[in-house]
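Section 5.1 Outputs to date
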Amino acid sequence: MLRNYLEIFALPGALKFSLAGLLARLPIAVLGLGILLFIQGTTGSYAIAGVVTAAFMVVQAITNPLIARLVDNFGQARVMAPVVVVHILSLTSLLVTVYADWWTALVFVFAGLSGGTVGSLGSLVRARWNAAVRTPRQLDTAFSWEAVADEILFVSGPVLVTTLATAVLPPAGILASMTATIIGSLLFYTQKATEPPIMRAVEGDKGKVLTNLGIFVVVVAQVLLGINFGAIDVIAVAFAEEQGHKALAGVLLSTFAAGSLAAGVVYGGVTWKSQAHHRFAVMMGGLAAATWLLLLATDMIRFGVIMFFIGLTIAPSLISASSVVKNLAPPRRLTEALAWISTSLGFGVAIGSALAGIIIEAAGARTAVLVPSVSSTLAALVVALFIRSMDPSRRSYDARANRTVVDTEG
C-alpha cells in the first residue's frame, strides 16, 4: 500500500505542489468559521455573524466553477494571482470595516468578495495530478491522498481557528488564513513546471460541463451527499447535548473524520480493477445503509461507533466521484468539472444544516437523523438508476468525439 504513495510522490514536482496546495487551501477549512467567530466576537451577535458567513459561503459556491473555467482557459497562475490579491484585500477591508464600525452593508460586500475569490484549490491541485501521473492507478492514489489531505485540514483547521479566535484575538483565525493563503499561493503558483498546459479548444468542447448527463448525476449526488454532511454535523452536536455531554460533540465528529481518513488511505493503496462509476455506486449504497443505523444509537458510544462506519464510506465516495468526473469531462474543462464537486457539496451542506436544525428544534436529534438518511438513500438511488450515464465508454468527451467522427465518416 505504501508503495503506491511513494510512487506518486516520486513523480517530478509532485510532492512540492501537493504540499504547497495543502497550505494554500487551508482557508477552505477555516475561513468560514473564522469569519463567524470574528463577527460574533466583535459584535456579540450570532445572528449577524451567521448571515455574514452565509453570504461568504453562498458567493464562494457560486463563483468557484466560474473561476475554474477561467483557469481552464487561461492557466492557473495567470488567473489565480489577481484573484488571490483581491481575496487578501477583501479580507483586510472586512476587518477594517467591522473594527471601524462602518456601514453594515459594506461588511456583506467584503464578505461576499472574500468568498468569491477563495477559488477551488482542491480542483487545481487535482488538475496538476492529472497532468503528472502516468496511469489510472496512480491517479486513484493521487486523488486518495488529496482526499486524506482534505480530511486533515477539516479535522485540524477548525480546532486551530477556534483556539486562535477565542484565546488570542477574534480576527486571529482570519489572519492565520490570510497568511496561509499568501505563503501557500506563492509556493504553489510559482511552480510552473507542473502547471497543466492550456489546451486548445476543439469542436464539441465549447459547451457547459453540466450538459454531460454523467457529470450532472455526480453533481446531484454530491448535493445530496452534502445534505448528509451538513445534517450529521448539527445532529452530532445536538445529540451530545441531549445526552448531557455537549463538550464531547467534537469527539463524535472526530470519529466521523477518522473513519474517512482511514478509508482514504486504504483506498489509495489498493490497485482497483473495477471501474470508478461502479465503486461510486457501491460507496453511495454503503453510506446510505450506514446512515440509517444512526436511528439505533441510544448513547454516545453507539453513536460514535456508527459515525466511524459512516466515515469509512466518505473519502472513497469523494475519491470515486472525482475519478468519474475526470473520466467524463472534456480535458479542457477538467478544473471546472472538478470544481462542481466542491460547489455542489457546499450547497448541500447549507441545506442539510438548515433542515436538521429545524427538525431538531421541533422533534429532537434522533428524529433529525431522517434528513441524512433520506438524502443519502436518494443519492444512492440516483447513482444506481443512472449508472450507465457515468460509464466513460458511453458518456465521456472522448467517446462522444469518437462517435461523431464515425458518424461523419459514415
